[in-house]
Sequence to fold (453 residues):
Amino acid sequence: MRVVIVGGGISGLVLAQGLRARGTEVTLLEAGAEPGGNIQTHRRDGFVTEAGPNSFLDREPTLRALAARLGIEDRIRTADPSAKRRYLYSGGKLRALPQSPPALIKSDLLPWTAKLRMLGEPLTRRGPTGDESLADFGRRHVGNAATEVLVDAMQTGIYAGDMEALSVAAVFPKIAQLEKRHRSLLLGMVRERKAERAAPTPAGTPATTGAVASFDGGLGVLVKALAGALGPALRLQARAVGLRRETAGWRVAVEERGQHTELEADRVVLAVPAFTAAELVRPLDTALATQLDGIAYAPIAVVHLGFAPGAVPPQDGFGFLVPAVEKRRVLGVIHVSSTFPWRTEGGRVLYTCLIGGARRPDLVELDEAALVTLAREELRLMAGVTAEPILTEAVRWKRGIPQYNLGHLGRLAAIDEGVTRLPGLFLTGNAYRGVGLTDCVREATGLVDTLAR
Ligand SMILES: Cc1cc2nc3c(=O)[nH]c(=O)nc-3n(C[C@H](O)[C@H](O)[C@H](O)COP(=O)(O)OP(=O)(O)OC[C@H]3O[C@@H](n4cnc5c(N)ncnc54)[C@H](O)[C@@H]3O)c2cc1C
Fold:
């Protein structure tokens, strides 16, 4: 069986490597000059910067198991233990995010009225049978004030989205399921934690830490290992520009370093953003293309500000998130040097500021110099960082993070159905069932099994 995979981000790389390891003939086409998609690690002047994702959550064994297969498990580095401390910018200042319900009750993060409302969570009624926005779900369970501060911060850190538009069942399926099973989230968590503790871990499952993690040289280590395992099966600067169905399989038209070629395949997998998949399938199935086009993306800008040793006060914790209600211009800030100390040399200090999202898409239109100025102003006002940076870098992702808005699950059903009209064509990637790296790896690994069968 010959498989052509389009898109060499983490999804396409994992799929290609998995199939190749099972003896399938694979070609992975990547339009860019480097593999990795959103993952772009750079080393410069004593700093390791990440233009896209910074870390993964080492909670389910998927990514660790992949690293073990690639022989790089020993290169995984979990975040410094101090990164368990996280902050919220709320009520005009940075406040520690309480780590447990009793700590939340004691903290000054929310007014007493909001805390009392939260204590009523076990009395929450079941929600509507149809789709519900994350904001409405939050308000039903914990009230308006806690939703504006806590729920919004939680989604901002993952989706950079608009909680009034996001579908709770699509963005936080486990939480939505918890309500289905137990009605109250609090009661559900208590009951399920007890059951989890009692259940044995299946033999051979790699031990996870539950912590935020990366690799000793940043996430690029994973990309390099995957690309290395693929060898010439990975073709860079090779853009798929057309798909044609043949009687027994597929033909993929490719623009490769100025040359036009065609590849024959028994199976084609599109591991590209949904809007690119839409362009490729449009001549074959306009209804499917319309569904794919309906998946919105939030733009996001990433600004790195690096400081000389001792120029700024030491960082504490993972960083801070900023709920929309604060009306500030940053979504959140990662304290890179305290969380991942191996990413800055000799006491240098690195802040990574996230800007834009569904909240302020206009800011991602700013040029790089203006983004750096904005990030510096916000960091000065919110965290008192006034020194002159020795490193500045701004990266704009015009269509950065897929938004699983209301109707997403219905759209997925229509997409799944549409794909069955094109036998031999498959879709994977962050547009569908999870935007995190772990989600992408899990989905692609599952597809290896489906295709290899
Ligand atoms: C700023 C930012 C921060 C993030 N932070 C985190 C984080 O800390 N932790 C986390 O878990 N997740 C994070 N994410 C999400 C995560 O990075 C992505 O969901 C994931 O990397 C997506 O991988 P993918 O392979 O599905 O898609 P992509 O990475 O988008 O890869 C798609 C690839 O397809 C290629 N391509 C497109 N068109 C064609 C074509 N016609 N022919 C050939 N190739 C083509 C593209 O060049 C690209 O390389 C972040 C995302 C962003 C943007």
Summary: Residues 144-159 form the longest helix (16 residues). The pocket of flavin-adenine dinucleotide is lined by residues 6-12, 29-32, 37-39, 52-56, 239-240, 271-273, 276, 300, 302, 397, 400-401, 429-430, 435-437, 440 (CB under 6 Å). The chain is about 35% helix and 25% strand. The longest strand covers residues 391-403.
